[in-house]
């Protein structure tokens, strides 16, 4: 047989096979309008029959047909799967060409019901597709439920302005710097901004700069090549910046970043690339940086402790979260929100706070801000069965002398001890007692978190541990 004969016989065999296989078929012109459709196809898509289908755009008749792809490229799609309602159709798309090769339209063929051999594949595809849809829905729900700007409770003017600015920041991709004292909700805001941003589908990776020893911080942030330093993982380390690729990098306590690393971070912001420790290669990354600090970065810049160029790069969209003592009108709403969350997590009944209880809370200075409030509420809930928490339920949880007149200074009790009435005692004893009281107050405010207590007192962690030991408070 000659090649021409083989082609002729093959064409006839294929055409007969095609006739026996196809379930439904239609054709469109080069403008994507239906020129012909067989009855089976009309029945399949539920065409009512009263209106002529010819002349209708195929994209309206069969939304996922993707015939335009064949019309644009002139190439066949031999096998594809498209959704039709809850079903999946196995389809072929073929260009229709004249003898001179000019494209005059395209044909779509449904193979699903006849191609039994494809069934297992289609069934598997359907199962995977539905698993994927469910997983996507659950992920979206868990993300939405876990963090949103709406969760940042507060009705004061200051909080409303802050949330408005945060929402605007979420619409942009520039770096955000969140300032504010410990426990004011800087991390919550950062999560909320990420969740409301276009990067929400990608990870938000947090790194607490102050919690990682200086020697390990570089590898933790930028990654390390295998064996880059003594004790390095054999496989190397990916680094938080790369883990955040496509998403958001949240740098908590940025003010504690050592100066040499500030230079490397500047490179991430300027060039969007990193150089892992010991790697000798540069890796492109796409991250949005949100940083937070409870320190006065501007003053640190002036004192030469923080790079000015990095400060301006980080501070493109500044947000300041005010301390709780400056927005006491937020207390009722905050109590409701926090108590609801505490009840959901512990499975207990929902509680509220009485007016007298709220007045007592409002009289406190809240050096530990909302974190401290949450701790106090948690302890009050644990210590009482009452549905409405009253004045008595907070006894022992807050300092006895309401420091309303001395809102923010955790050292104030110490000062009061110095100026207290009574017998004159040796200065050394008075100072020691004041220091002990200040340490206890800071620990309460920080909910027992020692590094935060140290920060509240404005001393290093090492100094704090020394003082704990000196006062016999280590346990
Ligand atoms: N406005 C708010 N509404 C509801 N919860 C809040 C609010 N602000 C803070 N919180 C809660 O208070 C706690 C402390 O908040 P967060 O960790 O975000 O504070 P922070 O400013 O980042 O603190 P730090 O500087 O010590 O890291 C968290 O449990 C957080 O959910």
Automatic annotation (TrEMBL):
<keyword id="KW-0902">Two-component regulatory system</keyword>
<dbReference type="InterPro" id="IPR009057">
    <property type="entry name" value="Homeodomain-like_sf"/>
</dbReference>
<dbReference type="Pfam" id="PF02954">
    <property type="entry name" value="HTH_8"/>
</dbReference>
<dbReference type="InterPro" id="IPR025944">
    <property type="entry name" value="Sigma_54_int_dom_CS"/>
</dbReference>
<dbReference type="InterPro" id="IPR013656">
    <property type="entry name" value="PAS_4"/>
</dbReference>
<feature type="domain" description="Sigma-54 factor interaction">
    <location>
        <begin position="152"/>
        <end position="382"/>
    </location>
</feature>
<keyword id="KW-0547">Nucleotide-binding</keyword>
<dbReference type="GO" id="GO:0005524">
    <property type="term" value="F:ATP binding"/>
</dbReference>
<dbReference type="Pfam" id="PF25601">
    <property type="entry name" value="AAA_lid_14"/>
</dbReference>
<keyword id="KW-0238">DNA-binding</keyword>
<keyword id="KW-0804">Transcription</keyword>
<dbReference type="InterPro" id="IPR035965">
    <property type="entry name" value="PAS-like_dom_sf"/>
</dbReference>
<keyword id="KW-0067">ATP-binding</keyword>
<protein>
    <submittedName>
        <fullName>Transcriptional regulator with PAS, ATPase and Fis domain</fullName>
    </submittedName>
</protein>
<dbReference type="InterPro" id="IPR002197">
    <property type="entry name" value="HTH_Fis"/>
</dbReference>
<dbReference type="GO" id="GO:0043565">
    <property type="term" value="F:sequence-specific DNA binding"/>
</dbReference>
<dbReference type="GO" id="GO:0006355">
    <property type="term" value="P:regulation of DNA-templated transcription"/>
</dbReference>
<keyword id="KW-0010">Activator</keyword>
<dbReference type="InterPro" id="IPR025943">
    <property type="entry name" value="Sigma_54_int_dom_ATP-bd_2"/>
</dbReference>
<keyword id="KW-0805">Transcription regulation</keyword>
<dbReference type="InterPro" id="IPR000014">
    <property type="entry name" value="PAS"/>
</dbReference>
<dbReference type="Pfam" id="PF08448">
    <property type="entry name" value="PAS_4"/>
</dbReference>
<dbReference type="GO" id="GO:0000160">
    <property type="term" value="P:phosphorelay signal transduction system"/>
</dbReference>
<dbReference type="InterPro" id="IPR058031">
    <property type="entry name" value="AAA_lid_NorR"/>
</dbReference>
<dbReference type="InterPro" id="IPR025662">
    <property type="entry name" value="Sigma_54_int_dom_ATP-bd_1"/>
</dbReference>
<dbReference type="InterPro" id="IPR002078">
    <property type="entry name" value="Sigma_54_int"/>
</dbReference>
<dbReference type="InterPro" id="IPR003593">
    <property type="entry name" value="AAA+_ATPase"/>
</dbReference>
<feature type="domain" description="PAS">
    <location>
        <begin position="10"/>
        <end position="62"/>
    </location>
</feature>
<dbReference type="Pfam" id="PF00158">
    <property type="entry name" value="Sigma54_activat"/>
</dbReference>
<dbReference type="InterPro" id="IPR027417">
    <property type="entry name" value="P-loop_NTPase"/>
</dbReference>
């Amino acid at each position: 047989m000659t090649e021409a004969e083989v082609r002729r016989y093959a064409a006839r065999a294929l055409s007969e096979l095609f006739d026996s296989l196809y379930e439904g078929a239609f054709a469109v012109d080069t403008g994507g309008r239906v020129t012909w459709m067989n009855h089976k196809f009309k029945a399949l898509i539920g065409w009512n029959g009263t209106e002529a289908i010819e002349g209708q755009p195929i994209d309206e008749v069969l939304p996922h047909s993707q015939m335009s792809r064949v019309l644009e490229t002139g190439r066949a799609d031999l096998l594809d799967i498209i959704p039709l309602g809850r079903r999946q159709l196995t389809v072929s798309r073929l260009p229709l060409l004249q003898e001179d090769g000019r494209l005059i339209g395209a044909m779509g063929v449904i193979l699903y019901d006849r191609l039994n051999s494809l069934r297992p594949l289609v069934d598997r595809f359907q199962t995977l597709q539905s698993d994927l849809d469910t997983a996507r829905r659950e992920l979206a729900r868990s993300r939405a439920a876990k963090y949103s700007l709406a969760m940042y409770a507060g009705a004061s003017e200051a909080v409303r302005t802050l949330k408005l600015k945060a929402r605007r920041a979420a619409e942009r991709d520039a770096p955000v710097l969140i300032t504010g004292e410990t426990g004011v909700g800087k991390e919550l805001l950062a999560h909320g901004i990420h969740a409301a941003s276009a990067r929400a589908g990608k990870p938000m990776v947090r790194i607490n700069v102050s919690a990682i020893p200086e020697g390990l911080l570089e590898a933790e942030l930028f990654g390390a090549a295998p064996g880059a330093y003594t004790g390095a993982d054999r496989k190397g380390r990916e680094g938080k910046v790369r883990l955040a690729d496509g998403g958001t990098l949240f740098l908590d306590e940025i003010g504690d970043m050592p100066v040499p690393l500030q230079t490397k971070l500047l490179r991430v912001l300027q060039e969007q690339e990193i150089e892992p420790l010991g790697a000798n290669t540069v890796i492109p990354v796409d991250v949005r940086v949100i940083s937070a600090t409870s320190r006065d970065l501007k003053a640190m810049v002036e004192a030469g402790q923080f790079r000015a160029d990095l400060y301006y790069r980080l501070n493109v969209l500044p947000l300041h979260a005010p301390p709780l003592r400056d927005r006491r009108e937020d207390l009722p709403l905050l109590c409701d929100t926090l108590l609801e969350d505490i009840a959901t997590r512990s499975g207990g009944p929902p509680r509220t706070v009485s007016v007298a209880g709220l007045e007592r809370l409002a009289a406190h200075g809240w050096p530990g801000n909302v974190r401290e409030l949450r701790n106090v509420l948690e302890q009050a809930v644990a210590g009482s069965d009452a549905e409405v928490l009253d004045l008595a339920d907070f006894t022992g949880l807050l300092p006895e002398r309401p420091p309303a007149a001395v809102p923010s200074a955790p050292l104030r009790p110490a000062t009061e001890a110095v100026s207290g009435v009574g017998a004159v005692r040796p200065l050394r004893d008075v100072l020691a007692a004041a220091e002990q009281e200040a340490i206890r107050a800071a620990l309460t405010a920080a909910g027992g978190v020692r590094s935060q207590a140290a920060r509240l007192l404005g001393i290093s962690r090492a100094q704090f541990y020394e003082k704990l030991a000196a006062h016999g408070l280590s346990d």
